[in-house]
Amino acid sequence: MSIDKCHIVDLPKIADSRGNLTFIEGQRHVPFDIRRVYYLYDVPGGAERGGHAHKQLSQLIVAMAGSFDIVINDGIKEKRIHLNRSYKGLYICPMIWRELDNFSSGAVCMVLASNLYDESDYYREYSTFLEAIQGKT
Ligand code: TYD
Question: Which ranges form a coiled coil (predicted)?
Answer without folding.
Answer: none
